[in-house]
Amino acid sequence: MVRFYNYDIVFAEIPDEVSLALNITGCPNRCPGCHSTHLQQNIGDVLDADALEVLMGLYGKAITCVCFMGGDGRASEINALAAYLRKNYPELKTGWYSGREEMDSAIELKNFNYIKLGPYIEERGPLSSPTTNQRVLQVLPDLTFKDITYKLTK
Ligand code: SF4
């Protein structure tokens, strides 16, 4: 079951979008120098369709995107939550921040507009660093990718 620690309305994580960022817990990645070790624990509230409905009631009209921050241990459930949003809130974009190098096979690209791939590597820096190893990819209508990481570089 997917759980989330908290959420925030953010502007930088997905370029040109106002995103409801859901911080998913239970992260299995164990990146050295992890900046959010609390997200490695299996804590927080359940994130299911009911929880999404509550959040959409609160913020659905103020945002343009919902971004799942993490969830590599439960990719099929993240995919299902994104599919739920696609079906019920087609006006909203969806994004997923994965810490893995490669796309999980459980992810169906048709359910996402944006995918972030790559672990946090301290010496390469965060997404805003010119030397980052992480990539933010826009999913195009033909389900190919456009690398838009440069939009986050400071
Ligand atoms: S993916 Fe993020 S939360 Fe998970 S271990 Fe790496 S830095 Fe920490």
Polypeptide structure, described:
With 154 residues, the chain is α/β, with parallel strands linked by helices. The chain has one domain (3-152): Aldolase class I (TIM Barrel, Alpha-Beta Barrel). The protein is built from 2 helices and 8 strands, in the order βββαβαββββ. It has helices at 49-59, 75-88, and strands at 3-10, 19-24, 45-46, 65-69, 93-97, 114-117, 135-139, 145-147. It has an 8-stranded mixed sheet with strand order 3-1-2-4-5-6-7-8, covered by helices on one side. Strand 4, helix 2 and strand 5 (93-97) form a beta-alpha-beta unit. The longest helix has 14 residues, at 75-88. The protein is globular and about 40 Å long. The chain starts with a strand and ends in a 7-residue tail after the last strand. The structure holds iron/sulfur cluster.
Quickly list its features:
154 residues; TIM Barrel; 8-stranded mixed beta sheet; 16% helix
* Whole-number count of domains: 1
Identify the bound ligands. iron/sulfur cluster
Q: Under the CATH scheme, which class?
A: Alpha Beta
Regions with pLDDT < 50 over 5+ consecutive residues? none
Order of helices and strands: EEEHEHEEEE
The proportion of residues in beta strands is 15-25%
What is the assembly state of the chains in this entry?
single chain
Order of neighbouring strands in the sheet with most strands: 3-1-2-4-5-6-7-8
Q: Mind telling me the CATH superfamily name? A: Aldolase class I
Helix share, percent? 10-25%
Q: First CA to last CA: what distance?
A: 36 Å
The global form is globular
User: CATH topology, anyone?
Assistant: TIM Barrel
Q: Mean pLDDT, as a whole number? A: 96
Q: How many β-strand runs?
A: 8
